[in-house]
Design goal:
Translation Initiation Factor IF3; four-stranded mixed sheet; alpha/beta; Ubiquitin-like (UB roll)
Length: about 190
């Protein structure tokens, strides 16, 4: 930028984006200062290097705003855990499946932990059946990332959201409508 440019000649682009041509660096600096802007090296690897006349402070500000907007649109994927037992009741199971579905729709991973107590650990087939049923019920919106595996007194499975499903952008079911009311004289 400005006096830090150490090459004898540059290809100059003005503030509107028009090509000025190849000029000496000193002449390009004078043109930029006369117009009240900075001379910024855009492409240092070109022969001769490309320099542009611009307001460097404004340029940096716009770049930071662009980076903030890009960061705001990113979604950080979290791992949500759902704990169950082998003797889970049907209503509790359905309740936990609704939670898992909501987590997956929000683009989060879901970790199912099935915890055995006491002698329940001798029947891992019951736990496997429950986890496979959960994976099958959620297969429309999720893929199995980590198959059910037994770890000491628990069995763990991880589901991740499917990438081929488009996300719905709007909220479902909540639409506010504006109603017009009439006054006593028939006017709004």
């Amino acid at each position: 930028m400005n006096d830090r440019i150490r090459v004898p000649q540059v290809r100059l682009v003005d503030e509107t984006g028009g090509m000025v041509g190849i000029t000496s660096t000193r002449e390009a600096l004078e043109i930029a200062k006369d117009r009240g802007y900075d001379l910024v090296e855009v492409s240092p690897n070109a022969k001769p290097p490309v320099c542009r006349i611009m307001d460097y402070g404004k340029y940096k500000y716009e770049q930071s705003k662009k980076a903030k907007r890009a960061k705001k649109k990113q979604h950080v994927m979290h791992v949500k855990e759902i704990k169950m037992r082998p003797k889970i009741e049907p209503h509790d199971y359905a309740f936990k499946m609704n939670h898992a579905r909501r987590f997956l729709e929000q683009s989060n991973k879901v970790k199912f932990s099935l915890i055995f107590r006491g002698r329940e650990v001798t029947h891992p087939d019951i736990g496997l059946k429950i986890l496979n049923r959960a994976a099958e019920e959620l297969s429309d919106i999720a893929n199995v990332e980590s198959a059910p595996k037994k770890e000491r007194m628990s069995m763990i499975m991880v589901l991740c959201p499917r990438q081929d499903i488009k996300k719905e952008t709007g909220k479902s079911g909540t639409h506010e409508t504006e109603q017009m009311t009439e006054g006593p004289d028939g006017k709004e």
